[in-house]
């Protein structure tokens, strides 16, 4: 375990050096966040139907999403992609470590470090100036921290699975293009999931994508009450365990058939 933590820590500290890129990303997310808040403001001002969430909750939901946008799946690890293309993945196989947890540690750092760089200043600005509210309660804030950590773990597991798929696809461009689009739409990043029609709710609740964004955000704003926390966190945990087990099974099959430089 200490070795995997060292890999995570080294990668995390290395990614924290990209502060200029994080600052540029912060400006972009502030811009799009303001646009989304104005769109929802126009919707609430013109609609006479009762909305599933209050406008204040939606504004907070939007800013939470803008700060956590790097938790969404974009692609596998570029370093692993390059190693598989060039054949230097053979060096990974010689390490006295389990390959899955080695790649998972890197993916976890790739997910969390950019998120920290963007989320901290984003939330400071949004709480002070842009209408973001504090957690619904102290307990909700604690549950949000736990749910966010579990969301990051699930995302890291999925990113690791994308990296493992490179053993078959080599380039991985197809999966790296399709998966983010599905996650973006079905996690609540575009529209909060309670706004989807009733017939879609069972499907959205069953899929893993709501665990990456919607569940932590709705716990934060109080839309998911304390009586529902156990089920929501259990959903996150179940999908995380399932994706990790799937990843370990797939990588065991991939390493048995992997051909490096024709050998």
Task: Count the beta strands.
Answer: 0
So what's the overall shape? globular
Percent of residues in helices comes to over 70%
Which structural class do the helices and strands define?
mainly alpha
Domain module tally: 1
Report on this structure.
With 263 residues, this protein is mainly α. The protein has one domain. 73% of the residues lie in helices and 0% in strands. The chain has helices spanning 2-15, 19-46, 55-67, 78-86, 89-94, 99-129, 138-169, 173-186, 201-206, 214-221, 226-257. Helix 2 (19-46) runs antiparallel to helix 3 (55-67), helix 7 packs antiparallel against helix 10 (214-221) and helix 7 (138-169) packs parallel to helix 11.
Search tags:
263 residues, mainly alpha, 11 helices
Would you spell out the secondary-structure blueprint of this structure?
Elements lengths: L1 H14 L3 H28 L8 H13 L10 H9 L2 H6 L4 H31 L8 H32 L3 H14 L14 H6 L7 H8 L4 H32 L6
Helix pairs in contact: 1-6, 2-3, 2-6, 3-6, 3-10, 6-7, 7-10, 7-11
Brief sketch in words of this structure:
The protein has 263 residues and is an all-alpha fold. It has 11 helices and no strands. Helix 1 packs across helix 6.
């Amino acid at each position: 375990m200490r070795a995997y933590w060292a890999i995570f820590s080294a990668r995390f500290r290395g990614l924290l050096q990209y502060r200029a890129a994080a600052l540029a990303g912060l400006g972009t997310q502030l811009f799009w966040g303001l646009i989304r808040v104005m769109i929802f403001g126009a919707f609430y001002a013109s609609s006479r139907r009762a909305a599933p969430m209050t406008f204040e909750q939606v504004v907070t939901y939007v800013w939470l999403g803008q700060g956590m946008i790097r938790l969404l799946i974009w692609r596998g690890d570029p370093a692993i992609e390059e190693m598989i293309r060039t054949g230097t993945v053979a060096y990974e196989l010689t390490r006295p470590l389990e390959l899955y947890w080695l790649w998972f540690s890197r993916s976890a750092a790739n997910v969390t470090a950019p998120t920290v760089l963007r989320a901290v200043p984003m939330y400071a600005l949004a709480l002070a100036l842009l209408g973001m509210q504090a957690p619904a309660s102290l307990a909700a804030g604690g549950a949000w921290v736990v749910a966010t950590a579990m969301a990051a773990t699930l995302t890291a597991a999925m990113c690791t699975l994308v990296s493992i798929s490179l053993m078959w696809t080599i380039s991985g461009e197809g999966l790296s293009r399709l998966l983010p689009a599905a996650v973006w739409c079905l996690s609540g990043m575009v529209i909060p999931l309670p706004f989807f029609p009733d017939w879609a709710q069972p499907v959205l609740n069953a899929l893993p994508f709501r665990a990456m964004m919607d569940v932590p955000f709705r716990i934060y704003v109080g839309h998911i009450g304390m009586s529902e926390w156990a089920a929501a966190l259990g959903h996150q945990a179940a999908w995380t365990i399932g994706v990790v087990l799937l990843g370990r099974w797939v990588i065991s099959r991939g390493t048995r058939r992997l051909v490096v430089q024709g050998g």
